[in-house]
Amino acid sequence: MSAVLQNLVNQPYKHGFVTDIESDIAPRGLSEDTIKLISAKKDEPEWLLEFRLKAYQQWLKMEEPKWPNVKYPKIDFQAISYYSAPKPKKKLSSMDEVDPELLRTFEKLGVPMHERAALAGVAVDVIFDSVSVATTYKQKLAEVGIIFCSISEAVHMHPELVKQYLGTVVPVGDNYYAALNSAVFTDGTFCFLPKGVKCPMDLSTYFRINTEESGQFERTLIIAEEGASVSYLEGCTAPKFDTNQLHAAVVELVALDNADIKYSTVQNWYAGDENGLGGIYNFVTKRGLAKGVNSRISWTQVETGSAITWKYPSCVLQGDNSVGEFYSVAVTNNYQQADTGTKMVHLGKNTRSTIVSKGISAGHSNNSYRGLVRIAPTAAGARNYSQCDSMLIGGECSANTFPYIQVRNHTAKVEHEASTSKIGEDQLFYFAQRGIGNEEAVSMIINGFCKDVFQQLPMEFAVEATKLLGFKLEGSVG
Amino acid sequence: MIYQDSKTLLEVRGLRATVNGIEILKGIDLTVRSGEIHAIMGTNGSGKSTLAKVLAGHNAYKVTGGSVTFEGGNLFDLEPEERARAGLFLAFQYPIEIPGVANSHFLRLAYNTVQAQRGKEELDPLEFEDFVREKMKLLEMNPDFLDRGVNEGFSGGEKKRNEILQMALLEPRLAILDETDSGLDIDALKSVTNGVNQLTNKDNATILVTHYQRLLNYIVPDYVHVMESGRIIKTGGKELALELETRGYDWVSVEQRTAARV
Predict the structure, then answer these.
(1) Of A276, A314, A324, whose CA–CA distance to A70 is shortest?
(2) Which residue of B has its CA nearest to A2?
(3) Residues of chain A positioned with their CB less than 8 A from the CB of B101
């Protein structure tokens, strides 16, 4: 049994190939000069360089967080190259002009993006390494006043908006990795929805790390003005390398009165091989500010990749009656480590939050949920419901739950439920006795377990996530 | 019912099996022909449920001796799911809950898997819905069952009905009902056994594993076997069950020991 159990997880990473495109790589190492180089390469205004340098100064004084329940060798930040951009053969004005090699890469990933964009009605702002190569549907979105572009472009085209909001949700000195990102971020996505605009389609970005040992520092900023709403999808997949790669992104969301932002992620960065060699370090800061009354921030994530995941998409519920949601599936296998969860900070009156976390551990992996629910004295009538379920596959993995609850208002109501289960021989035997083989049984059990989260995903993402999970856990149970 | 010249479905010879190194089955002989209903009775720990699980292929049990032929082939050549597809069905004593998986989805997948094996037509969700609803009437089941998670939060009686519903869908050649009567109130017992009776015919066979004679008032066996310490120590007709009811299991063991001494 356990031998068969071991087999189901060990599926080679399908997306492990390197695209042969000439890259423009900055020398390794981090210093004020590197930051000035990045800023100069991107032709940035003075205030942004100051923002970066301020972050760098803060970062120098900070220490890497030691509290996550993960283990890894010390990162040499001087060994990382902080800037890498694919050299386009000529200036691009449409998708047809995109490097065919690059397009083939997307096809290998099973994401023919132009087709996908057209068929699914999804606008895809493609990030290939650190620079946006092509942006589609931008015109269509512009007609209703939505700005959807790379953050570098936004810095030039809409500096006042970027300046107004950048670093307001995640300050430059928020944490070690956020400070690093603020100092060296190279590109990312910017989205602005003006007052009253409901985005007519789901917006989507595919991220992909391509150059070996190039740190990837994306910066995403989404702003929904009064009454606006948007659903944003982020999908990740990275090629296979033996040396570890650092990925420290920052995502900031701002929702004003009655605005609604839904942010969905499927993360499948390279997780390392079956012996725990290689893989991405995914140290991400994601936070949404529900600033206005009746605003809503909703995070949905399906985390299957990365050697180490350190990530807590959070909501600061400032506006009265604002709503925060966190729906998460985190899968770890082989020697993967995940310490992930959320923070719900209730400041406004009658604010509500929901946390549904599903952790699945297989192989020798370690999967922790870490969550904070904080009810401030001002948050009269606040409510939170948390549900944290863990599922173990095999006998070598572990699951942990670290829920922190701080309630400073006696009218608040906080509920926490947790469970741990194991895919056991008896469950598999029950399926087998009805003619259903182990792989299909595991897939059904896992999808049943994750149903509450998958329901929150946009349709095509839900299908992708279901497949991804089956693929990740294939061979782990038998 | 016993038919003349009926085919042998299951032939168990000298079957021995262990769990965690402890021998539970110590040489079982049993022949089941199509059309027959066998009851296997015995006290707790006599090995009845182990026999059921070994036949179905639970891998916690290790077969250490003997042979089992199912429809002429070696049963132990088949994986558990292959045995199921070949028409061996086990109604579980404790059906497993599978949270979040809709019962209708599970039932349809099981049904289609077995249909495919038999070279018969598979049903799409809409066709299956009509089909399964008919079968559910047989067991007086509420259609709500289809939308709930598999056995999730079901009462004991609901779980057992769900087992027999699966039997009705999969139409096995040999059905082994492990303590299907346990935990059932009298009304549930009546509808479950009524369902089973409608499913038995001259081409299939049923093995009832039970503790109590009560079940046999509703499903009348052709043979009654008494198990003790991993062996079948006595075989008789349906009247044996009644005798057990009045005289207890001890009586058989004593009789056996006396016989052995003579």
Answers:
(1) A276
(2) B59
(3) 444-445, 447-448
**Are the Cβ atoms of A447 and B100 closer than 8 angstroms?**
yes
Q: What residue in B sits closest to A441 (Cα-Cα)?
A: B106
A181-232 per-position pLDDT tens digit: 999 998 888 999 999 999 987 887 654 444 444 457 889 999 999 999 999 9
Chain B CB contacts of A356 below 8 Å: none
* Ordered structural domains, chain B, with CATH: 8-261 (3.40.50.300)
- Supply φ then ψ for residue B157, to 5 degrees: -65, -40
pLDDT interval class at B246 (50, 70, 90): confident
Amino acid found at A297: I
Q: Which residue has the tokens 């800023």?
A: A39
In A, minimum Cα distance to B102 occurs at A448
Looking at beta carbons, which residues of chain A come within 8 Å of B87? none
> What is the distance between the terminal CA atoms of chain A, rounded to a whole angstrom?
6
Picking from A298, A213, A303, A291, the residue whose alpha carbon sits closest to that of residue A255 is: A291
Report the residue of B90, B93, B96, B166 to disrupt the A interface, i.e. the one with the largest count of A CBs within 10 Å.
Answer: B96
Instruction: Spell out the residues 6+ positions from residue A471 whose beta carbon is closer than 8 angstroms to its own.
Output: A11, A14
pLDDT of residue A89 exceeding 80, the answer is no
Q: Does A466 touch chain B (CB under 8 A)?
A: no
In tens, the pLDDT along B45-80 reads 899 999 999 999 998 999 999 999 999 999 999 999
Q: Say whether B92 sits in a helix, a strand or coil.
A: coil
C-alpha span between A137 and A122 (Å, rounded): 8
Half-sphere exposure of A34 (CA within 13 A, CB side): 21
| Strand partners for A207 | A236
Q: What is the ipTM of this complex?
A: 0.94
Q: Which residues from B are below 8 Å from A432, CB to CB?
A: 57, 79-81, 84
Nearest to A326 by CA among A265, A401, A250: A265
β-pairing, B8-19 vs B61-70, is: antiparallel
Q: Which residues of B touch A (CB under 8 A)?
A: 56-60, 79-81, 83-85, 89-90, 92, 95-96, 98-101, 105-106, 109-110, 113-114, 117, 149, 166, 170
What is the distance in angstroms between the CA of the first residue and the CA of the last residue of chain B? 35
How many Å lie between the alpha carbon of A450 and the closest alpha carbon of chain B? 8
Q: DSSP secondary-structure letter at A354?
A: E
Torsions phi, psi of A256, nearest 5? -85, -170
What is the reported pLDDT for B128? 94
Sign of the four-CA dihedral A440, A442, A444, A450 = negative
Distance of alpha carbon A466 from alpha carbon A444, whole angstroms: 10
Residue A410 has pLDDT above 90, yes or no: yes
Q: Nearest C-alpha of chain A: how many angstroms from B97?
A: 8
If you write DSSP's letter for every residue of B195-217 in order, what string do you get? HHHHH--TT-EEEEEES-GGGGG
| Chain B nearest C-alpha distance from A366 (Å) | 23
Q: Would you call A427 and B98 a contact, using CB atoms and an 8 Å cutoff?
A: yes
Please state, as a whole number, how many other Cβ atoms lie within 10 Å of the Cβ of residue A332.
31
Residues making up chain B, counted from first to last: 262
Three-state secondary-structure class, residue A73: coil
DSSP B13-53: EEEEEEETTEEEEEEEEEEEETT-EEEEEE-TTSSHHHHHH
pLDDT tens per residue, range A23-82? 566 677 788 988 998 899 889 999 999 999 999 999 999 998 888 888 888 888 888 777
